[in-house]
Amino acid sequence: MNNPWQHFTQYLKPTIQSTVIAQQQWLAECLAYNQQSAYGQHYHFASIHNIAEYQAQVPVTNYELLSPWIEKLLQGETNQLFNGEVVAFEKTGGSYSGGKLFPYSARGLKDFRHALLNWLAELIAQYKITQGKVYWALSPATAQPQTTANGIAIGGGDSLYLGNENLAAFMALSAVPLSVGQVNSVEDWQLLTLYYLLCSDDLVIISIWSPSFLIQLLKAIQQQQNKLLDLLNNGGMVAGHILEKDVGAAQRLQQYLSQQQTQIIWPNLALISCWADASSAMQAKVLADYFPYPDIQPKGLLSTEAVITVPNQANEAVLCTASNFYEFLDKQGKIYLAHELEVQQSYQVIVTTNSGLYRYNTTDIVACLGYQQNRPILKFVGRAGIVSDLVGEKLTESFVNQCLAPLKGFAMLCTNKQQCSYILLIDKNYFAENIHILITIEQALCNNPQYEYARKLNQLAPLTYKVIDVPEKQYLTWQLAKGKRLGDIKIPALFLGDWKKVFQA
């Protein structure tokens, strides 16, 4: 094919509509298209003529309320939450029956693509990219492919999200063959990924989810250096992949091992896209130490349920007003539209999608930082559903994120129910850098009046900390054993489970 970078420039779409008009138009089209679905008939979509009527007739919902409709889709029924058939289901974590299955429609996936491909096209224009490779994070296939009883895929391939029309260009740009994502062994997957990345001195973009994903790969270069040097100098075979020798890559690796500068391996790397907000902020700081020269762009808010924001050229996460309909719930329970948000205020995101989520409370909390061309700039700050309450203090994830923000590296606040207190787990490698900050963490927690009151009454014992060796690796291993995909694992700032079952000091 012709230059694959050129292929993606067609998706660069300037925002010309006002947020109000774009949101009104999107909602009207969504309701009109899905009015004959069972859900649309139940809530009389055909009689809705404006946003106010939509809010009056259709309730705010959650997964538990939608589960009867989703169950019918899982049994093979059609036209339930949306008009037409389910293209695929996607599974995400959650307490509901061990996980949640969300249906995707063709129109819903098109909305997702609109935001994703426009973001990629903007990157190409901003960095003037015409050649080179991209590393799109590919997790190992640690679980067997699943389908519903009626044969509908659970978890889609790259073509599901990108579209068949874009798959060839996507594959042409990928530094790591997509077949690596089908490797079952984590060890073989890691070795193959590193081999292909080390051979890609023309790498220009890295797109991953968690910063810890890339940090662990870099650490593995040290651990696997002998195997990697052998493969690069002599070639070989790993998990059915025939690997050619690359003496130049071997020389770059030798130089990197002695100097520890990633620019030696990837001299053309311009951008790393990853989570960098909320609980990922501390890991993003560590990643910046490994990569001082490329830009690190905080990824927008993309979840299984919907795409909410994507970054603009100033690395600000802007609302995708042409991909879904959004509402925002403040702490007092009042609902706002996208153009009504107040700067420096926080809201829970309520989303309506073409994949059957109507006024769905994502429990994602965002802070409005301003506006770009009348679209709100939103920063992800945490999840509303994660709250620790030992004696009435009610610590939320977003609050804990703020308290731990000055720390560098891994940091996780855990409950110590036996002592009725909290324990802060920190990375052994960053203990020296963080030691002067540790005394300020409980002071920050005391900005929560209930926590401060409980400490004064000795209802809560003082905060303690414990130094953990390779904590990211231990947490990732625990999540992988539960069947999570490596690239999807996010390290939380507030952990409500039994940390002793996850970490060894």
UniProtKB/TrEMBL annotation:
<dbReference type="GO" id="GO:0005737">
    <property type="term" value="C:cytoplasm"/>
</dbReference>
<dbReference type="GO" id="GO:0016881">
    <property type="term" value="F:acid-amino acid ligase activity"/>
</dbReference>
<dbReference type="InterPro" id="IPR055377">
    <property type="entry name" value="GH3_M"/>
</dbReference>
<feature type="domain" description="GH3 middle">
    <location>
        <begin position="318"/>
        <end position="383"/>
    </location>
</feature>
<protein>
    <submittedName>
        <fullName>GH3 auxin-responsive promoter family protein</fullName>
    </submittedName>
</protein>
<dbReference type="Pfam" id="PF23571">
    <property type="entry name" value="GH3_M"/>
</dbReference>
<dbReference type="Pfam" id="PF03321">
    <property type="entry name" value="GH3"/>
</dbReference>
<dbReference type="InterPro" id="IPR004993">
    <property type="entry name" value="GH3"/>
</dbReference>
